[in-house]
From TrEMBL:
InterPro entries: Homeodomain-like_sf, Myb_dom, SANT/Myb, TPR1-6-like_ubiquitin, TRP_plant, Ubiquitin-like_dom, Ubiquitin-like_domsf. Residues 579-634 form the Myb-like domain. Keywords: DNA-binding, Nucleus. It is found in: Nucleus. This is Telomere repeat-binding protein 5. Residues 240-251 have a biased composition (Polar residues). Its main location: nucleus. The keyword Oxidoreductase does not apply.
DNA sequence: ATTAGGG
DNA sequence: CCCTAAT
């Protein structure tokens, strides 16, 4: 369910709201700040989904999966891991946590320096660091040779369909004090010693993180308890009665009921601690580590258990993509809006130069074992576009999860773990926030033509949908041509359709790239589902929500990541301010109408009131935004229609804008005049 | 915290 | 949208 929730966001093109600038947020009203914080949490959620899916594993992992077979497998893996790590200078130990239960993950740690920040050795790292595995990939050092081993290992595991196997690399990190919640090193070490070599392990889902760390850094991204509150956000469905009143009118308040992402994220109930993660604490010391960390790729391995669990059908045929292009996502200012920051000064396509790489294998088949997986609005509606046919069969799909594309990070060795976290966070946020495209793959081929109907494309209800896959891809527009973008970073595979529910015909929100182009690096993604969740409730949104809450679609997320962005670690300069520009959220006509109405009534200059009256529910619209919008509206109204850009605003509204503007300007002038007179009188 | 304006 | 200055 948790996943579900997140999926919703992801699939709907939910854009992770940017973390507000500290300076800015500081100036914001508490309510706004709060909203932003919620946003952050949401962003985090996405990150979690994306980066790790471990959540799922954790939750659905059968607690008792230590069958002898499992153990055997584990032994194999374990030794493989050991061997692998023994090649590394630091002697590493493979530990299996068989803490009895939900997590039987294997951790690889450097005995001499183990920092399990914030968690005791007895605790499941996974539990506390769901993100770790995902993020860990960014901390490793490339090593081709190792990789093959890792792959081999992985593949073997895959074949055997072993259970979860998560290795965690930990290492020496000289600056981990940044974490308030971290336990003392001594204590940590002790704890580690206490539980040496455990051997059990194995679990459902396979997650192998083979990393070569020259100097492993512990990523302690403590994710919020992802959880829970599955309660779906109730979205105000409607609401805008707009009356055409003239300015000084009575009060028929008109509120833009907004279904704001922020708001809807009610499901994101996270411990307050989450914030810490997002809000980087003041940096400590300077980091000048020049460790180059680059992740290589994530592999996907099917999970036996999952398959078993899912009643759909045990055959998971994850669509694997070859990782050929490491998509270096070079963010543009837009996509990576961190202010005043240089991006990618370097980052050669193949950071092999002394870089670090790592093999991160992860099982992405997020099949909810509990079958609870239900639906999320993310599922694509498999309707057909040929809507005139009397009986139009519907295709049912279920998409369980998406992962975030791989990306690379470069950061100095001297960086603090905290800064690392921030860097990763920024990178992820940038990726997510920049908007991802959704790609559709049929039989492994990318389908591009958006205008074809599903039927024409070969996606029909009676087809075996296991050949259908979805993937999230970086927004091409943000990708500099120079860097050959990898193709689908993520692949989700849908397996057999599980007729559970019918979905409305394509709403047009779901765009698919249809095109049979086997060519991998073609990066022309289709329109991606953008977060059009602006405040104004739209029929579409509503319908989406409804359909969303229903049952599930069948989806088998098997994906393989390809690549992505290179995140330049902080350029020593202004790296501290994690300022991000807010995402752009064009005003909808509805909102404009509400704004116009409010201004007609309240006048210009009372933006606070306008906000309260008409946009109280639109968390992301600040009074400043409204004021700015009004400004642009006035401007728009004055220029010729040909010069206008963006979503056209009804002329009628623009006329009202001009009228209202003139009216209130006049009022303002009168007021001033009166004041002046009064003053003059007093002076006399 | 708001408002007003320039960028 | 952001940023600043001035309230």
């Amino acid at each position: 369910m948790v996943l579900q929730k997140r999926l919703d966001y992801g699939f709907n093109g939910y854009q992770v709201p940017p973390v507000p600038r500290a300076t800015r947020s500081a100036r914001r009203r508490g309510s706004f700040k709060k909203k932003h914080e919620e946003n952050q949490i949401c962003a985090f959620d996405l990150l979690a989904i994306v980066a790790g899916k471990l959540l799922l594993d954790k939750k659905i992992a059968p607690s008792s999966s230590n069958t002898s077979a499992d153990k055997d497998q584990c032994a194999v893996i374990n030794s493989a891991v050991k061997n692998k790590w023994q090649d590394v200078e630091k002697s590493l130990k493979v530990e299996a946590c068989d803490q009895g239960s939900s997590d039987n993950n294997i951790y690889v740690s450097d005995l001499s320096h183990v920092h399990r920040q914030g968690c005791s050795s007895k605790e499941s790292l996974v539990t506390q660091n769901d993100l770790n595995l995902g993020l860990a990939s960014a901390l490793t050092k490339p090593d081709c040779a190792e990789r093959s081993n890792a792959e081999r290992l992985v593949s073997g595991q895959t074949k055997n369909e072993i259970g979860t196997f998560a290795s965690k690399a930990e290492g020496d990190s000289s600056e981990y004090r940044e974490f308030g919640d971290c336990k003392s090193e001594a204590a940590t070490k002790r704890a580690v010693k206490d539980e040496p070599h455990k051997s059990g392990m194995v679990q459902s889902s396979t997650v192998v993180n083979m990393c070569n760390l020259e100097d492993p850094v512990v990523l302690d991204a403590k994710p919020p308890a992802l959880v829970s509150s599955d309660s779906r956000a109730k979205v105000p469905s409607c609401g805008n009665r707009i009356s055409n009143s003239s300015y000084p009118t009575n009060q028929d308040d008109l509120h833009v009921v907004s279904r704001d992402d922020d708001e809807n994220s009610s499901g994101c109930t996270h411990p307050i601690t989450t914030k810490k993660f997002f809000r980087p604490a003041p940096r400590i010391g300077d980091r000048r580590i020049r460790k180059f960390l680059a992740s290589k790729c994530w592999k996907v391995a099917p999970r036996l258990k999952d398959a078993t669990v899912s009643n759909s059908d045990g055959n998971f045929k994850p669509v694997f993509r070859k990782r050929q292009n490491c998509y270096r996502h070079q963010r543009s200012e837009r996509i990576y809006p961190f202010k005043k920051r240089k991006h990618f000064a370097y980052s050669s396509p193949s950071n092999s130069d002394g870089g670090m790489s790592c093999e991160f294998v992860s099982d992405f088949s997020l099949k909810g074992s509990n079958g609870d997986a239900s639906v999320s609005r993310s599922r694509m509606h498999g309707g057909q576009r040929t809507s005139f046919l009397p009986r139009d069969s519907h295709v049912k799909l279920r998409i369980k999860s998406f992962s975030v594309p791989e990306f690379l990070i470069e950061i100095p060795e001297s960086s603090t773990v905290g800064s690392l976290k921030r860097t990763v966070m920024e990178a992820v946020t940038a990726i997510l926030g920049s908007g991802l495209h959704v790609g559709v793959l049929l039989q492994g081929k990318k389908v591009r033509e958006d205008n074809k109907t599903l039927r024409q494309t070969g996606i029909s209800h009676n087809n075996q949908l296991d050949a259908l896959g979805f993937c999230l891809e970086p927004n091409p527009s943000q990708t500099p041509p120079s860097l050959s973008p990898g193709d689908s970073p993520f692949l989700l595979q849908c397996d057999t359709p599980q007729p559970i529910r019918r979905y409305p015909p394509p709403t047009g929100e779901v765009h698919q790239d249809i095109c049979a182009d086997p060519e991998p690096h073609v990066n022309n993604l289709g329109n991606y589902i953008e977060s059009d969740h602006d405040s104004a409730p739209s029929p579409t949104d509503t319908s989406m929500d409804k359909s969303t809450n229903s049952k599930a679609l069948v989806a088998v997320p098997a994906m393989n990541v390809e690549a992505l962005a290179v995140v330049p670690a902080h350029q020593k300069s202004k790296r501290s301010e994690i300022a991000q520009r807010r995402i752009r959220r064009p005003f909808s006509v509805t909102e404009v109408e509400a704004l116009v109405h409010a201004v007609e009534k309240l006048g210009t200059g009372r933006w606070r009131d306008v906000k309260l009256q008409a946009f109280d529910n639109a968390k992301h619209r600040t009074y400043v935004d409204l004021k700015d919008k009004w400004k642009t509206l006035v401007h728009t109204a004055r220029i010729s229609p040909q010069q206008r850009r963006g979503a056209p605003v009804p002329q009628e509204l623009l006329d009202r804008v001009l009228t209202a503007h003139a009216y209130w300007s006049q009022q303002q002038a009168k007021q001033q005049f009166k004041h002046q007179q009064a003053e003059t009188c007093l002076l006399l």
